[in-house]
C-alpha cells in the first residue's frame, strides 16, 4: 500500500511539473526549462518497479476511489424526499440523454404525459421542476407567488448579463425597485404629447415605405419586423430610431437574435450543468462576445446622454433614470449608473425578439389562411371607414381582429418556457415538497394548447377567442406573457404594437403566399423565443381602403 501511494505521489509530482510548466509558459510568454523538471521525475518513476501484488493493490485502490465517487454522484442525483416524480436519473448525466438538446419541447410534452403536470428532471446534477397546465402554473406563480418568483442565479445567462439586469434579477428589493421604475417610465411615455401610439405609428410609416417598394414582388419580412420592434423600444429607451439598413441596429439585432438561440441551446445547457466546462473555448463564448458588443454600444449611448441632457427635462428612459438618480442622491437607493446600461439592454432585448417573432408568426398564418385575412380586412374597412389612422381604442369595435391577434399569440407561443423561475424558500406544490433554490420551468406551451382550455387547442382558429354572441372573449389560459408578479412588464406595449401594426398593414396591403413557395412550414426554430423559419410573402396594394 505504501508503494502504491508512493507511485501515486510520483505520478502527481510528474503532472504538477507539467502544470507548473504550462503556467510558467503562460505567464512569461516563453517556455521554462521542462527538461530540468522532467528528468529527475522520470528517473524516479523508472526506478519504481511494480510487483503483480502492488499492481493489483493499485487497481483495487483506483476502483475503490471510483466507487466512492460514483456513490457520491448517485446520492447527489437522487430526488429529495417527496420531490415531484420523473424518469430514473443517471449519475453525472442526470436525464440529459432523454432530451433532444437542440429542441426539447416535444420531450417535455412526452414527460408531462407520463408523469403529470408537475414532474422533475435532472439537467446534469441539477434538479429542475417543470410545471405544466393552467391550474398548476396559476397555483405556483399566482397563489404561491412569493415562493415561486425567484430567478436561478447560476446559469449561463446570469454570467453573460453579469447579474445586473432586471429580467434575471432575483426576487428582491433591487428587482422590485427596477421593475417599478421601468413600469412607471413606460406608462409616463404613453401619456403626454408624444404618446406611445404616435411613436408606433411613426415606425409603421417606415414599415409601409419598405412594403411599398415591394408591391407586386415578394419580400422576406424578418429584418423589417425585427428592426421595427427594436426601433419602437429604442425610441422609448434612447430617444432614437435607426434606418433599417443602419449598421449599429443591424449589429444589435443580430446579437439579440443569436443570443436568444444560444441561451437555450445545447452548449449553454452544458455550461449550466457542468461548471467545469465554463472556462473552455466552447461555442457558448459567442454569447459573451455578443453581449459585450451590445453593452459597449449602450454604454456609448448613456455617455452621450450624460453630456447632452438637461436635468428635469427627460427625453427618454435613460434621461428619466439619470433624473431619478439625481433626485435620490445617496439615500441608499438601489438604482445606479452602472445598472442603467444593463436595465436598458434588458428592456431592449425583451422588447425586440418577442414582438417581432409574434408579428412574423402572424403574417405567416395570415398569408396562408387567406379567408381569415379577408375577414379581418372586412372588419377593419367597416370600423375605420373615413378614419385616417387606427387607434388602440378601436380594438373594442373589432372582435374578430382581436381574436385573430390573440390566436396568433397563442400559436406563436413566443416564449415557450417563460423565463426560468426559482423557489425562494422550502415550499410545497400540489402536495410535493420543493426545497429553496430549486429551478422551476413554467411550460407555457402546455397551457397555450391545453386540452379542455381551448375549443381548438391544436389548430390555428380565431374561434378560440370568439364567444356565443360573436364577441371577443379571452380565456384565462391565455398566458403568453406568463402570470404573477414576474409577468411580462412590456405586455401593454406589446399588445399596442401588435394591434396597430397588424391592423394598419392589413388595411393597406394584401399578403399572399407565393405560388412557388411550396407548402408552408409552421414548425418554429427553438430558442428562448420561438422564431418562424424564414419565409417570403407577396405584397399587393388593396383597392378598398
Ligand atoms: C409579444 C411580446 C412579448 C411576449 C410574448 C413576452 C413574454 C414574456 C414572458 C413569458 C416573460 C417571463 C415572465 C415570467 O418570468 O414569468 C416576460 C418577461 C419580461 N418581459 Fe416580456 N414579452 C413580450 C414583450 C415585451 C416587451 C415589448 C417588453 C419591453 C418593454 C418586455 C419586457 C419584459 C421584461 C422586462 C420581463 C421581465 C419581468 C420580470 O422579471 O419582472 N416584454 N415577457
UniProtKB/TrEMBL annotation:
Cellular localization per UniProt: Membrane
Molecular function terms, GO-annotated: heme binding; iron ion binding; oxidoreductase activity, acting on paired donors, with incorporation or reduction of molecular oxygen, reduced flavin or flavoprotein as one donor, and incorporation of one atom of oxygen
Cofactor list: heme
Residues involved in heme binding: 488
GO CC annotations, alphabetized: cytoplasm; membrane
Main location: membrane
Keyword vocabulary terms for this entry: Heme, Iron, Membrane, Metal-binding, Monooxygenase, Oxidoreductase, Transmembrane, Transmembrane helix
Listed InterPro entries: Cyt_P450 (IPR001128), Cyt_P450_CS (IPR017972), Cyt_P450_E_grp-I (IPR002401), Cyt_P450_sf (IPR036396), Cytochrome_P450_fam2 (IPR050182)
TM regions (residue ranges): 55-75
Domain of life, source organism: Eukaryota
GO biological process, one term: xenobiotic metabolic process
Family the entry assigns: Belongs to the cytochrome P450 family.
Family annotation (PANTHER family): CYTOCHROME P450 2F2-RELATED, CYTOCHROME P450 508A4-RELATED
Protein name, UniProt field: Cytochrome P450 2F2-like isoform X1
Name of the encoding gene: LOC114867929
